[in-house]
Structure formats: structure tokens, C-alpha cells
């Protein structure tokens, strides 16, 4: 008889685990309470990038004079934008459904919870269904963290989930939080023409990123008139008659705007899942000490995606799902590599776009590690000039003795696509010569990678 695998949560982690385990022969049930593809599809990756791409098109059209075109003055149609996003989300949910159905995954629309370590109950519109499981995956994701000094109302006080797009386009948006999510929203709304103020708790936006990369973004924000409150923490909020909201910071400064958007991280969806009742050891809202295979203290109960507390990225969640499926089906005994989170590529969809992978230059120096750093600006590349966008650079960090590529950063147009070359190199210990010896296309931005690898 085939192994029964029950998954709670159909985001990137759950969908990937389900399709891979079913392909390998498991009898899979996937319980999802909302939309297949998860928050990634409905609230996070897809709508935010759709809005950013629309804003990017606006910026391109605004700079059309530099391309030999008459300049135009386009405006945003907020209803058309909203419907573009919902059509896209529905299409992606549908293609997930088709994929899962083609693999004979039993899809259950409902809310799942464990009743013991081998039993999952789904509460559905037509009542409760009980499933007995040899292995269980909990991949219920996360939601925006709300600070105690304000309550989002979906009107003027927004979380990221209220912003696709908001009811009215903000005249002046205050963004709290200057990590990846915060800066993407700054870029998005300033492209739409909103005035934006960004509250930066440290002295640098993107505090965990290479300072040179963060500086490139800061200078673009300043060029666009974004106001930066550096070294300020938001501590209080009032609604005002005049402008909408008034934000108070711990250093005494205040910011007035029409809307405020919170981008201060997320919290796990672990309530009501029956984890502790099933014997899973918890550490507050998180599952305690997952092993390399993402198993909890109960060996057949796995945790993946944002709930695992590893790297909160959809790409990582999907990979975790695949690895768990392989482990459940015993494939790890044959050819299994653990996920190396240090080698995950990530991108920030701003203008210029930012992407990095592996070792950062600043971290190498902080560790006193000898590295070779080569940097090529896009300004010297034919394709960047053709694109009328010479901003940014490619930076490759390699081992001076062996030439092995240890990491890299790319700032500039299509950085999120271009970083794949460096991700492949970092994951497979390729050398700078492997990149330099590859015949890339001309004219293409990837030529900067080949040059930096020489
Ligand atoms: C604004 C924003 C933009 C982002 N952009 C990117 C990006 O560009 N690229 C990237 O890689 N990452 C991005 N991320 C991160 C990414 O969205 C998450 O890392 C990813 O969604 C995590 O996937 P997951 O499978 O853990 O969970 P989710 O995508 O959160 O899915 C979990 C699913 O579980 C369901 N669920 C919860 N509880 C239950 C229950 N009891 N029963 C049944 N179903 C349940 C939920 O309905 C949901 O569908 C972004 C995040 C944010 C906030």
C-alpha cells in the first residue's frame, strides 16, 4: 500500500511537496483554506511584483524622450490594475490546481489541524473530514506582523495585504520598515507618483545588505524625492482630520501623510493547528529545533516554508517542499543534498533591481577572509546604453587561490534574472574561469558577468 502524506497549507512549500511526493508514488492529500499558491500568490510575491512592473512601465514611458520617442504622460487606472492582479492570481491558482490534479493529489478546501500525530482533520463547508497519515507536513506560512502602537484599518493604516492597490492611491505614503518589503513598496508607490517617507530604524536602508548596494538604492530614492528618516523607530500613530495620519518616532520626529504602510516583518501561522497537542515541541509560535530534513521532534511531522523560520522566500519554500517529499519517500538515502540557505539567491525588485547570492564582500572582510572582488559597472556595457539605463554594476566575490565563485551582487536592470548565473556557480563551486570561458550573447547585460569573471 502506498504511503499516505497529508499536507496542511497550499503555498509554495505545500504545493511543491504535494506534486513531488505524488510523482514519487505517495497518496497525497493537500488541505488549503484559501487559494492554491498561498499567500505568495494572493498577497505577497505576485501582486507586489505585478504592481512594481506596472510602476516600472510608467517610469520607462516617462523617460521615453531618452529613447528617441516623444515623451508621454501616462496615469494609473486603479481599477484596471486591481483587475489585472486578480486575473493573474486566479490563473496561477488554476494552474496549481491542474498540476496537482494531474498528479492525483486529493485537494481539500478547508482548514486543517492535527488531532494526534497520525491524524489530521479538515473543517470544510460540508463538515469535517478525517485523514490518517503516515507523514504530515505543516506549511501554513505567515502573516504581517502588527506592532502594538497601531491597528490597521485597511483604509489609511495598511499592511502589505491592503495595498494591491489600496482603495485610493496615497497622496503621501509613510512606509515603516526599510527591509526588502519596505523598500519595494517605497519604489512601487513613488513610481505611481505618491510622495513617500521611509522610516529607517538604522542608518542604512536594507540593513543586512552590502553597504554599496544599499547606497545605490538610497541615491535612487533621494533622486526621486523620497524622504528618509534614518535612525528613527515608529512608536505611535494618530489619525488626523487634516492629512490622514501622524506618525511619532522615538527620537521626537513626526511624519504626516495620507496613508501609512507597515512593513516590519511577519509572524508565523501556527495557532489552532494542534501542533502541541500532537506532541510537537514548540518555542512560542515557532516549532522547536527542526533537523536538516525539516522534521520536528516527531520524526514524521515536517514543517516547511515561512513557518520553518528559515529563509522566508517562496523559492526556498518550494525547495523545502521538494526535499521533504524526497525524504518522505526515502530518496534521501540515494542522492540527497541538504538545503544550504547561505547559497540562496534573492532579489529586491526596486529600480535599480538588486540581487545577490552567497558571500557578501562586507561579510568576507568582517570575517577577515581573503577574497578577490571584481566589479564591472553596467555603464560600460553596450546593452545598458541601448536600454538607456546605465545604472548599477556586477560584483563577483571569488576565492583568490582556486577561483571558485563564493558570491556576488548585481545592481541594475534584470538583476533578478542575471543572478542565476552566479547562483549556479556558487551552488556548484564553479570558478570565475568557468564563467569567463562561456560564450554569452552580445549585446546583453550578461556580458558584464563574463567581464567581471575575467
Ligand atoms: C509583500 C511580500 C512580497 C514578497 N515577495 C517575494 C518575492 O518576490 N519572492 C520570494 O521568493 N518571496 C517573496 N515573499 C515571501 C514569500 O511570500 C513567502 O516566503 C512564501 O509565501 C512562503 O510560502 P509558504 O508555503 O510558507 O506559505 P504561504 O505562501 O504563506 O502559504 C501558506 C498557505 O497555508 C494556508 N493555511 C494557513 N493555515 C491553514 C490551515 N489551518 N488550513 C489550511 N490552510 C492553511 C494559507 O491559506 C496559505 O495559502 C514576499 C513576502 C511579502 C510579505
Automatic annotation (TrEMBL):
Domain FAD/NAD(P)-binding: residue ranges: 5-321
Keywords: FAD, Flavoprotein, Oxidoreductase
Coiled-coil annotated spans: none
Domain Pyridine nucleotide-disulphide oxidoreductase dimerisation: 345-453
Gene Ontology molecular function: any one: flavin adenine dinucleotide binding
InterPro entries: Ala_DH/PNT_CS2, FAD/NAD-bd_sf, FAD/NAD-binding_dom, FAD/NAD-linked_Rdtase_dimer_sf, Pyr_nuc-diS_OxRdtase, Pyr_nucl-diS_OxRdtase_dimer
SUPFAM superfamilies membership: FAD/NAD(P)-binding domain (SSF51905), FAD/NAD-linked reductases, dimerisation (C-terminal) domain (SSF55424)
PROSITE patterns given in the database record: ALADH_PNT_2 (PS00837)
Cofactors, names only: FAD
Family: Belongs to the class-I pyridine nucleotide-disulfide oxidoreductase family.
Full protein name: Unannotated protein
UniProt source species: freshwater metagenome
